Structure of 8-oxo-dGTP diphosphatase:
Amino acid sequence: MANLTPLHVVAGVVRNAQGDILLARRHVTKEQGDLWEFPGGKREQGEEPEQTLVREFQEEVDITIQRARPLIRIRHTYTYREVLLDVWSVEQFSGTAWGREGQSVEWCAPHLLRLRTFPAANYPIINAVLLPAIYIISTEPLKQNDPQFFYQLEKQIDNGLQLLQFRAGSLNDYEYCACAEKILTLCEPTKVQVLLHRTPQIVLSVGAHGVHLSQTALLNLKERPLKKPLWVASSCHTLADIQHAQSIGVDFLTLGAIRAPEPENSLGWFNFFTCTESAKIPVFAVGGLQYEDMSFAWAHGGQGIAGRQHLW
């Protein structure tokens, strides 16, 4: 089996106007029968992935894909075959979904995806679906009640902030917790998810949505520090970091620096792509990036971009 070319399967994540996700149920007679999946199918010889996506959605669920972009690529080894699952986020489509091959199709609210049973290769897609394309890292507040910091936070919320990492290395634990609690209060009405760059114990004490581990903290752990559905994210710089993050059940990670102040320390897009091809979880590109770099991140296997200097 090791010498076989992976079966290249192209799948799509389609959202309706309410934000629900289209799922299809595999026939009981098929491999992985009676399990839910994101619609798609095998890439035919000579097809580009986008062509496969368009063809499969027309054949399976009678939807016409008009615009899509890469979401995540996952290599998974079943007992019978290695699969490359090439997943796209569908941004525009037309038509009404129905099971043209007799399969059941349903629209599922994103927060209920984890309650469904999927083939093993599909589970990493759920985190990619639940995460936005921009992961903003806060600047350091000058003090516990820094007016400029909270003014900027409110601007970010007004601009559609969805995922925030709160960093404040200069604050002691008491000051950090007080600041985090105020951040959570401001973010709660718009359901912004807040991860803390602190210990898992502090995450639990203030009721945040998860923890972001430094590279050092990650490598010192032998198991996942928080139970789902709380997020566990980590900073990674090497393929070995990524492998360790996956071994303890990290949900997503940041990888960089894509552009470091010293060019010789920059990871670069090619090396980023090489790492994301080996990753089985969403990866945000980080390090000297701006909004204009989003398409590069997607094209190189990234969930999106993360950062502070040019994003906060």
